[in-house]
């Protein structure tokens, strides 16, 4: 079956490739001439990006200088941010004026490639000297555009001070110089605090006052300088970002030292307006609109020329409003001859209407899916799903040439990645339909009637159909909570065991630890209460209880006295790491070394990986989540004591999914805890950070699988087939739903993130499967 698992992975990658195509780089061009030139009113500009600056972070209390300054010398703009709300796409939107693709999430974690055209490029060509300090993503995107620069990694989220102090140090040096025209600063500390502690931490207000004082310092040292202070994205109520909630997609833009009016507009409008203000070309990539709230202080002729320039630039990207723009040009010419303000107003109205129409059309068409790839990927995933079901159900396959069938599917997937002629694609689709029909005919009613006899199987089959509703998809955790407790209630009445009632209470308790989902994430939960300074004793208490019970759990799976002592030492040091040493880097490295020592010992003794994984999970999880580990072990022990083999496998599948959400995850990318990747690290090391983040994210599902395999009567590879089947089944339904809903209003904010989450689930499960297959080969 392993080859089919590989085919499933490739089909998922093909679907992602077809749904999130990597956009072609636009060729820089300029249509400006001397008649459309507007002179710069500002000799210098300071642009400050405060990462994760939410709309409500600007107030008289937290930012007294900014609150007073924008009222006296500028304006406050509410900026609408597109998803995904992560740094790289937002920097691109702020500089190019275009909507970055969802695939930029991957580039955000890897090494971003340089941008071909942007406001930065246009200013550089104009001869303006630009200096930059802050997030090193800017240096990678614009490697040749800055006169002076110094970047800092944005991924080391445990750094709240040095990352900003480095920027401020350079700012003070630049204040003593006068050889630059534009200074861009990107502060990261606020975002890092949000990732680790959330927006309600007292550290947030401290950091905001620090940012406020820095802006005041720069402001008072500069005269006729244009100031723009904004955030690249916001911060969700539970901390982090990447989703589509209101606090993540609405940020402030404070403009100082310029007559302007409070307003609301899109983030992609900023580069075009900034270009006009500084007298440089609008980037060819821009699909933004010019805003009268920012440019209303220009004289009427200059404002009209700017509107004309932007309208023509937009028209070159989409063949719309040609006649209307010509009419507006005629009004403009008559105004220049007669100085009739009525004609000027008519021209303004037509230009703005056309710019809005074209911009909205370009926004909607910014992503074009490859429908052929989506269809072929879905059909091949369905074929693999049927193959796995045949294996689980012991159904004889209709195809007796498995190797040829596998080769055909692999060939179609690989060739589809490179792009094919339309007729070849039709042949591929016909072939996959034939293979699907051939494998489907193997099943009869007797093969599936058993589904009705198992509550967990029946609900697992029904589960992904809730994804047709965006609200159910956002609140998927409720499904797992409700039906898991229903299953336990059934067993309480059937078996009349007090321990099952205790498990029911325990699972009801875990729901209170972390509020997740779109509608309830902002509601205070037990974790919020425990993380308050006044309740630190209770946080320590629940952490100690979790560690002690974890020690007891590990004792169930090992009998060696030295290992038990080592477990105790490691768990005590984990407590010290979290509660005493303020997450000391050195102590974190010592803990990883001790865990590795235990790994070597248990592998040599053949005790299995479970005792090691329990220690790893304790190290990576937040203190308030440590109690989830013994609850998982308790549930597994009860399942082993009463359930039949078939139900036992599905019960552990459900347990892993339930605890995945209980840990604080949901179908938003913002729920991924990046800070978990820095245990024992001094700086951003992607080779180490990514595995730690993934292990933290899937800690409890993997724990439930390992607990299942402690039962010697369980066939590991057959159980893995069940897990792969249901995960692939969910992905196939998600593929279908996303294909149907690809024009839905919430496709990028709800359905696309779910696709990423499920693809990540399957990817990590595939790694787990590979480990077991590799161990099987070694044992042979």
Structure description:
The chain has 780 residues and is an alpha/beta fold. It has 4 domains: 2-17 and 369-392 and 406-441, no CATH class; 43-289, Alkaline Phosphatase, subunit A (3-Layer(aba) Sandwich), CATH 3.40.720.10; 299-367, no CATH class; 454-714, no CATH class. It is 60% helix and 6% strand. It is built from 34 helices and 8 strands. The chain has an 8-stranded mixed β-sheet, with helices on both faces. Strand 3, helix 6 and strand 4 (148-152) form a beta-alpha-beta unit. The protein is globular and about 90 Å long. The two termini are 18 Å apart. Residues 24-37 and 447-452 have low confidence and may be disordered.
Structural key phrases:
single chain, about 775 residues, alpha/beta, Alkaline Phosphatase, subunit A, 8-stranded mixed beta sheet, 34 helices, globular
Poorly predicted sequence stretches spanning 5 or more consecutive residues: 24-37, 447-452
Which structural class do you get from the secondary structure elements? alpha/beta
Based on CA atoms alone, the radius of gyration comes out at: 29 Å
Strand content: 5-15%
The total of helices stands at 34
End-to-end separation in angstroms reads: 18 Å
* Biggest beta sheet summary: 8 strands, mixed
**What's the β-strand tally?**
8
As laid out across the biggest beta sheet, the strand order is 4-3-5-1-6-7-2-8
How many domains? The number is 4
Mean pLDDT equals 83
Determine the fraction of residues in helical runs and give it as a percent range. Answer: 55-70%
Shape, please?
globular
């Amino acid at each position: 079956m392993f080859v089919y698992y590989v085919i499933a992975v490739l089909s998922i990658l093909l679907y992602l490739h077809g749904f999130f195509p990597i956009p072609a780089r636009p060729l820089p061009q300029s249509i400006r001439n001397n008649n459309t030139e507007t002179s710069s009113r500002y000799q210098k500009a300071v642009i400050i990006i405060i990462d994760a600056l939410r709309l409500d972070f600007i107030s008289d209390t937290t930012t007294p200088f900014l609150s007073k300054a924008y009222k006296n010398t500028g304006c406050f703009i509410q900026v609408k941010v597109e998803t995904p709300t992560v740094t790289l796409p937002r920097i691109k939107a702020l500089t190019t004026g275009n909507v970055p693709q969802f695939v930029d999430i991957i580039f955000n974690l890897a090494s971003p490639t340089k941008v071909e055209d942007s406001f930065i490029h246009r200013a550089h060509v104009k001869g303006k000297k630009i200096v930059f300090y802050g997030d090193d993503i800017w240096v990678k995107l614009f490697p040749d555009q800055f006169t002076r620069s110094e970047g800092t990694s944005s991924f080391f989220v445990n750094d709240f001070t040095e990352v900003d102090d480095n920027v401020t140090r350079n700012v003070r040096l630049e204040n003593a110089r006068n050889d630059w025209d534009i200074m861009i600063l990107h502060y990261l500390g606020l975002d890092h605090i949000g990732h680790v502690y959330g927006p309600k931490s007292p550290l947030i207000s401290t950091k905001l006052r620090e940012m406020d004082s820095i802006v005041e310092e720069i402001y008072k040292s500069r005269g006729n300088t244009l100031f723009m202070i904004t955030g690249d994205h916001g911060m969700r109520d539970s901390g982090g970002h990447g989703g589509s909630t209101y606090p993540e997609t609405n940020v402030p833009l404070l403009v100082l030292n310029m007559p302007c009016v409070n307003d609301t507009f899109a983030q992609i409008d900023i580069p075009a307006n900034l270009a006009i203000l500084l007298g440089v070309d609008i980037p060819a990539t821009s699909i933004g609109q010019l805003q009268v709230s920012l440019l209303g202080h220009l004289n009427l002729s200059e404002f009209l020329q700017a509107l004309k320039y932007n309208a023509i630039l937009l028209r070159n990207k989409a063949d719309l409003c040609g006649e209307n723009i010509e009419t507006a040009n005629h009004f403009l010419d008559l105004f220049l001859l007669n100085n009739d303000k009525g004609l000027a107003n008519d021209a303004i109205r037509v230009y703005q209407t056309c710019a809005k129409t074209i911009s909205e059309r370009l926004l909607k068409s910014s992503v074009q899916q490859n429908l052929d790839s989506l269809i072929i990927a879905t059909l091949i995933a369905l074929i693999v799903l049927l193959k796995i079901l045949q294996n689980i159900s012991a159904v004889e396959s209709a195809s007796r040439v498995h190797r040829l069938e596998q080769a055909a599917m692999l060939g179609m997937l690989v060739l589809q990645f490179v792009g094919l002629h339309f007729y070849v694609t039709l042949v591929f689709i016909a072939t996959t339909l034939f293979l699907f029909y051939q494998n489907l005919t193997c099943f009869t009613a007797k093969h599936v009637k058993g589904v009705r006899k198992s509550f967990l199987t029946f609900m697992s089959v029904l589960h992904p159909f809730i994804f047709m509703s965006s609200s159910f998809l956002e609140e998927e955790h409720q499904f797992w909570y409700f039906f898991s407790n229903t299953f336990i209630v059934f067993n309480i009445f059937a078996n009349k065991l007090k321990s099952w009632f205790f498990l029911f209470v325990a699972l009801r308790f875990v729901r209170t630890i972390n509020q997740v989902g779109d509608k309830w994430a902002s509601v205070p939960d037990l974790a919020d209460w425990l993380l308050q300074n006044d309740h630190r004793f209770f946080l320590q208490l629940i952490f100690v209880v979790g560690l002690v019970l974890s020690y007891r759990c590990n004792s169930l799976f090992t009998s060696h006295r030295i290992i038990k002592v080592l477990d105790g030492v490691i768990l005590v040091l984990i407590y010290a790491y979290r509660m005493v040493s303020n997450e000391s880097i050195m102590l974190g490295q010592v803990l990883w070394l001790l865990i590795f020592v235990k790994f070597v010992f248990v592998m040599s003794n053949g005790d299995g990986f479970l005792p090691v994984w329990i220690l790893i999970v304790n190290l990576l999880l937040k203190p308030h989540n440590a109690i989830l580990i013994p609850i998982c072990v308790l549930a597994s022990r009860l399942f082993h004591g009463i359930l039949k083999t078939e139900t036992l496998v599905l019960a552990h599948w459900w347990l892993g999914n339930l605890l995945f959400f209980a840990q604080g995850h949901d179908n938003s990318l913002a729920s991924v805890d990046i800070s978990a990747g820095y245990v024992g690290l001094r700086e951003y090391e992607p080779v180490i950070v990514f595995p730690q983040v993934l292990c933290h994210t899937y800690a409890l599902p993997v724990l439930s699988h390992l607990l299942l395999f402690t039962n010697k009567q369980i066939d590991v590879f057959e159980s893995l087939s069940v897990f792969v089947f249901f995960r692939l089944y969910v992905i196939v339904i998600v593929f279908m739903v996303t294909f149907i809903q690809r024009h839905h209003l919430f496709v990028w904010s709800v359905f696309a993130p779910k696709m990423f989450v499920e693809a990540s689930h399957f990817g990590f499960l595939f790694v787990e499967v590979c480990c077991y297959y590799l161990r099987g080969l070694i044992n042979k």
